[in-house]
Write a structure and sequence with these properties.
The longest helix is centred in the N-terminal third of the chain and has 44 residues. A three-stranded antiparallel β-sheet has the order 1-2-3, with helices on one face. By secondary structure, it is an alpha+beta fold. The N and C termini lie far apart (94 Å). The chain is built from four helices and three strands. It is rod-shaped and about 90 Å long. It has one domain. A hairpin with a 5-residue loop joins strand 1 and strand 2.
């Protein structure tokens, strides 16, 4: 029995496969986490960008109603051109804000549910699927 055990301890043909079996799940989980957070950060950035651009485009409006319509039209026209964004899931809220209501706010909400986010969030812990980003611009002419 002892010679068989010593022969087994000297045989190193399968050590790489066993080491890979230990390391592979961790590496795959790390890879899925990188992909998941990359996807989420990409959507966060896109939603913030579209909110900021809609707020900047709304500056040309003369009234709050016109500003709101310009911001909504901008988002409707351009939401599809952003990476990872499904235009049907974008919600827009506009309104006055700040002291003495001197500012105009554009808030864009996006729900990541029903996308690749669901698959990735089952494997790694990701942030909540609902995102809201806001951009505020001062009213001009003062």
């Amino acid at each position: 029995m002892l010679p068989a055990l010593s022969r087994f301890s000297r045989n190193q043909r399968a050590t790489s496969a066993i080491e890979f079996a230990f390391v592979a799940p961790v590496l795959l989980l790390l890879l899925v986490g990188i992909m998941g957070y990359g996807y989420v950060f990409g959507i966060y950035h896109s939603i913030q960008q579209i909110a900021a651009e809609a707020a900047r485009s709304s500056v040309s409006g003369l009234s709050d109603t016109e500003r709101s319509q310009i911001a909504r039209d901008f988002i409707t026209a351009h939401a599809g051109s952003y990476a990872f964004i499904d235009p049907t899931k974008v919600r827009v809220r506009t309104g006055q804000t700040g002291p003495q209501l001197q500012s105009f706010e554009v808030a864009v909400a996006y729900d990541m549910s029903g996308s690749i986010y669901d698959s990735l969030s089952r494997m790694v812990s990701l942030p909540q699927p609902m995102i809201e980003r806001r951009a505020i611009v001062q009213r001009g002419g003062y």
